[in-house]
Amino acid sequence: MIHSVTVRVPATTANLGPGFDCLGAALTLYNQFQFSSQVCSSTLDSAADGVKITVTGLDADRVTTDERNLVYQAFVKVYEKIGQIPPNVAIDIHLNVPLARGLGSSATAIVGGLVGANQLAGAPLTIEEVMHLAIAMEGHPDNVVPALIGGCRIAVSNDAAYYEASNWMICPVAWHPEIVPVLAIPDFELATETARKVLPANYSRADVIFNTSNFGLLLLALETANGDWLRVAMRDRIHQPYRKTLIAGYDMVRQAAINSGAYGVVISGAGPTLLALTSPNYATEVATTIAATWDQQGVKAEVKVLAIDHAGAKYDVCLDPS
Ligand SMILES: Nc1ncnc2c1ncn2[C@@H]1O[C@H](COP(=O)(O)OP(=O)(O)O)[C@@H](O)[C@H]1O
Ligand SMILES: N[C@@H](CCOP(=O)(O)O)C(=O)O
């Protein structure tokens, strides 16, 4: 019998400029979730029956430890899907991905909870079924998909209604190893829900064509590391023009990063983290410049030079000694 499951889930950077709600990549920064079976609820000291949650690491005090916790909600979803009552469980969460910064913290929580529950239940669901549950919970595929399977991915819906889709085609996007993601994480939060509310419901034909052409070019540029293409292809008219007003210093930081060698700078996920893509030779210079420029605007930012994670969610299972 399985005693505990430990799941490691990567952060993500979604959208990458023109790929709003359909393109995202996993990053080498991870949250960890451990799920341990409990014998009976009388051994648990949480207010919620059947679950005890502890959280350590970054922003730990900001995460709820009762049954509203997103990891636990995802855990329960698996048992609903298989028609079983969720077992009593202790969940230990260790956070390295900051909350509400555009690095997919909610995606790690959803994927961690789903993968943990599925393994604890003896793996009744396929990875596709886990993915569909994750997309339905998050409401869009671009962060949960790379968080689950790693790499850079495009999600395409086979259904007419994109956001209600139950059929998804997931395709890998080649990412040239000489393209380095530099992430600049400011010291303020921006909830995805808030950043989605500022977007218009409709777009002009010109804006749609602008994004479609840049998106196509971006895929070629990521595969080939063609700098001339990348400098053009990271432009977007679907979300960034509206969201940048929520990110103090955005234009100045973007221009300074480009002047110091970045191909381009985009909002990571829903923001406020900024993603610069650059070559290995310029990565340190770009990182230093972004931090210094934001500092001049009164914004403290942590800057990380990362790589693309190709593994996605990884788990270890520990069997009951008896
Ligand atoms: N490990 C976690 N456990 C529980 N809830 C989490 C966890 N990580 C994130 N969340 C929830 O997700 C919210 C952040 O989600 P969101 O606004 O989409 O930002 P992000 O861009 O980081 O995904 C947090 O405020 C919290 O409610
Ligand atoms: N496409 C979504 C992506 C949100 O990603 P997150 O990492 O900020 O949760 C959006 O742009 O709203």
UniProtKB/TrEMBL annotation:
Pathway: Amino-acid biosynthesis; L-threonine biosynthesis; L-threonine from L-aspartate: step 4/5. Keywords: Amino-acid biosynthesis, ATP-binding, Cytoplasm, Kinase, Nucleotide-binding, Threonine biosynthesis, Transferase. It is an enzyme of class 2 (transferase). The gene is thrB. Catalyzes the ATP-dependent phosphorylation of L-homoserine to L-homoserine phosphate. InterPro entries: GHMP_kinase_C_dom, GHMP_kinase_C_sf, GHMP_kinase_N_dom, GHMP_knse_ATP-bd_CS, Homoserine_kinase, Ribosomal_Su5_D2-typ_SF, Ribsml_uS5_D2-typ_fold_subgr. Belongs to the GHMP kinase family. Homoserine kinase subfamily. ATP binds at residues 98-108. This is Homoserine kinase. Its EC number is 2.7.1.39. The keyword Transferase applies. It is found in: Cytoplasm. Residues 222-294 form the GHMP kinase C-terminal domain. It comes from Planktothricoides raciborskii FACHB-1370. GO terms for molecular function: homoserine kinase activity. It catalyses: L-homoserine + ATP = O-phospho-L-homoserine + ADP + H(+). Pfam families: GHMP_kinases_C, GHMP_kinases_N. Residues 69-151 form the GHMP kinase N-terminal domain.
